[in-house]
Design a protein that fits this description.
The complex is a heterodimer of chains A (140) and B (114). By secondary structure, chain A is an alpha+beta fold. Chain A has helices at 2-11, 34-38, 49-62, 77-82, 111-122, and strands at residues 16-21, 69-71, 88-92, 98-101. In chain A, the strands form 2 sheets. Chain A has a two-stranded parallel ribbon with strand order 1-2. A two-stranded antiparallel ribbon of chain A has the order 3-4. In chain A, strand 3 (88-92) and strand 4 form a beta hairpin. Classes of the chains: A alpha+beta (140), B mainly alpha (114). Strand 3 of chain A pairs antiparallel with strand 3 of chain B.
């Protein structure tokens, strides 16, 4: 997440950023992860729209996400349209066409790739982001 | 020097062959099961994975390759981005992608907490 916040700070005047909060990857009642227990990130699958909003809110606060966030509706229509689960990134150009689509996370979630695409679509002024850190708390 | 050599009776050879075939079948069946689960909704996939013995599926199968293929998705670079209208987390407003996208490119980040 720090890598994405950094890209957001760098490009926010030229590119709109949006986090789409979707179905939990490792809820405690379905597929608990040891790493999440260690980090005290233990949530059961939200059963209602309100519960989902609650977990999403906790996610944004605890991870220090600066990017504006929206909540996918309970039918997961947006996730399904974009195959966004468990995590994924897209860049859409100003003509409404997909300019970059990451591979599915956790393996394909690489902010450094998004940075390259941002530089291409929104112009340079980019400082290199060699580390390519993943959103390690958000994904397995 | 006497070379150590495994001598099997015809019966032993048959048992070995059957065992190897059974293992191969089991492997293919497990692989197909994981491949099927990867195409299921997240909850179903999570249930399947939670029943797997620890890191075994990751060690035994080309998990990453399967995953990248199974969840490749149907959108391609150059396609029109599907529109959506979703509530902001703070519930102050709805955001429509096409409206947001009118002036500037949009970077979308899909994810969850866990």
């Amino acid at each position: 997440m720090p890598a994405l916040n950094k890209l957001y700070e760098q490009y926010k005047d030229r590119v709109q950023f949006l986090v789409v909060y979707i179905t939990e990857a490792h809820p405690s009642d379905v597929w608990q992860m040891e790493s999440n227990v260690r980090d005290h990130v233990v949530f059961a699958s939200p059963k209602t729209e309100e519960e989902r909003a609650f977990v999403a809110g906790a996610c944004v606060r605890k991870l220090g996400i600066k990017i504006p966030a929206v909540l996918d509706e309970f039918g997961n229509s947006t996730e399904l349209a974009y195959t966004g689960w468990p995590d994924r990134m897209y860049l859409i150009d100003s003509q409404g066409r997909i300019a970059y689509k990451s591979k599915p996370g956790p393996f394909g979630f690489k902010p450094a790739e998004l940075e390259t695409a941002l530089a291409r679509v929104a112009g340079t002024r980019s400082t290199s982001l060699m580390s390519g850190r993943r959103m390690s708390v958000m994904i397995p | 020097m006497v070379k150590p050599r495994l001598r099997l009776s015809p019966r032993g050879r048959r048992i070995l062959l059957i065992t190897l075939c059974a293992l191969a079948l089991l492997y293919v069946a497990s692989l197909s099961y994981i491949w099927w689960a990867m195409h299921e909704p997240p909850e179903q996939f999570g249930k399947v994975m939670s029943r797997m013995p620890g890191p075994v599926p990751f060690l035994l199968f080309p998990f990453e390759t399967l995953w990248l293929r199974a969840r490749a998705g149907h959108l391609n670079v150059g396609d029109a981005a599907p529109d959506f209208n979703l509530a902001k987390l703070d519930k102050t407003a709805h955001i429509q992608l096409s409206a947001l996208n009118q002036q500037q490119p949009v970077a979308l980040v899909f994810g969850s907490y866990t």
